[in-house]
Amino acid sequence: MPAPPEGSRALQLNPKAKPSATKMKQVIGQVLVDKLDNASYQSDRAAALTKEIADAVKMQLKECNFPRFKYVVQVVIGEQRGEGVRMGCRCFWDAETDCYASETYSN
């Protein structure tokens, strides 16, 4: 890419580096332990708890100060009854600049 003309400003559209997926997993895992350790499933509380967890994860990730990133946090809470669960999701992103981290917690 050619250098911008002298005296002009160049905008940096893309971040210099991706956030660390390892660091994101640590943050997510710690929030899950903090919020769910010794918790039991309550269907009437599940919606509020998913929002609480998502907000906590988002806040903790923002505190990591990864520059120029937005976060999409999805939390799913379900009851364990010995039944299987299949889930799928789809995202469109730029593999050069975007990344993801996922974590599973069970008690």
UniProtKB/TrEMBL annotation:
One GO location term (cellular component): cytoplasmic dynein complex
GO molecular-function term, one example from the UniProt record: dynein intermediate chain binding
CDD domains: DLC-like_TCTEX1D2
Source organism superkingdom: Eukaryota
Record-linked Pfam families: Tctex-1 (PF03645)
Swiss-Prot/TrEMBL GO biological process terms: microtubule-based movement
InterPro entries, per database record: Tctex-1-like (IPR005334), Tctex-1-like_sf (IPR038586)
Name assigned to this protein: Tctex1 domain-containing protein 2
Organism expressing this protein natively: Phytophthora ramorum
